[in-house]
Amino acid sequence: MSDHIPDPTKMISDTPRTDAHNWKDGDYDDPLHAFYDFAGQLERELNAANEMFRKLNIHALNLADRIKRLEEAGDVLCENSNISRWDSPAAAARKLTEQSNWIKAKEAKP
Question: What's the predicted TM-score (pTM) here?
C-alpha cells in the first residue's frame, strides 16, 4: 500500500533535488566534480525559468496596456451613443442596455 500523505514527523527539505542527488556517482572521480556539474545544471534551469518569467511578464504588461486602450475606446463609443430625442423607444432602450452591459463588462472580476 502506498501512502500519498507524507509522514508528519519527518522534516520536509527545501532542497529535495540536492538531497536526492547521488554525490558518489561512479562517473565522477571527485565529489567536487559531481557538485560542479549539478550546480551548473541547476543554474541553467534557473536561467531558463528566469527568461520564461521575463517573457511572461512582458506579455502581461502588453495585455494590460491593450486592455486599457480597449476600455478607453469603449468609453468613447459609449459616450457617443447618447440617446437622442430622434431615436425610437426601442432604439433608446437598446442603447441603454448596451451602455449598461459595457459598464458591467468593465467591472473587475473576482
Answer: 0.51
